[in-house]
Specification:
Layout (H helix, E strand, L loop, with lengths): L5 H4 L4 H33 L6 H12 L5 H11 L5 H6 L6 H18 L48 H4 L2
Helix pairs in contact: 3-4, 4-6
Length: 169
């Protein structure tokens, strides 16, 4: 193969080289900003407020009370057997567990009965033994998660690298 003359290898003008360098710098800054955003998002998602012992105790008192639906008492027995803890429930780790789903469904039915006037006024979640029917299970107020901004990665996203080494070599 014949070697190309020097003018064929160096066809870019100084303005083109400068523009190319500016583009490369902007791409590097964008990659750095995206990496920093990913790190920040990871930190925010992994630093959620832990469940307090008081919140777990409140759930235990409610689920073990006579006023709780049977599905909640079954969850309390499962916690006593060590299958999971109340903190797991409060963090939302068990949202797909059939027993948790059944307990939540029972709470919805109970709330519907109360709303229809069948069971009277529900007791306070802090006092499940209060008269007037069963209380809906307490869900402590949690701070809302911050809205994500920018581009969200999905499982089907391809890893793309727009660096100089891939595009300009």
């Amino acid at each position: 193969m014949a070697q190309l003359p020097n003018w064929a290898l160096n066809w870019k003008t100084d303005d083109m080289v400068a523009a190319e360098q500016t583009l490369d710098d902007a791409a590097d800054q964008a990659e750095t900003a995206m990496a920093e955003a990913d790190r920040t998002l990871y930190e925010v998602e992994s630093n959620e407020r832990p469940v307090s012992p008081e919140e777990a105790e409140m759930m235990k008192r409610y689920a073990s009370s006579d006023k709780a639906p049977p599905e909640w008492r079954e969850l309390a027995r499962r916690v006593e057997r060590g299958e999971f803890g109340w903190a797991d429930y409060l963090r939302g780790d068990l949202d797909r567990d059939p027993g948790v789903v059944a307990a939540m469904d029972a709470s919805v039915r109970q709330a519907d009965e109360i709303e229809a006037g069948g069971a009277g006024t529900p007791p306070s979640p802090a006092d499940p033994a209060a008269p007037g029917g069963r209380a809906a299970p307490p869900r402590p107020e949690r701070p809302e998660r911050p809205e994500r901004s920018g581009r969200h990665r999905r499982d089907d996203d391809e890893e793309e690298d727009f660096s100089e080494r891939d595009w300009f070599s």
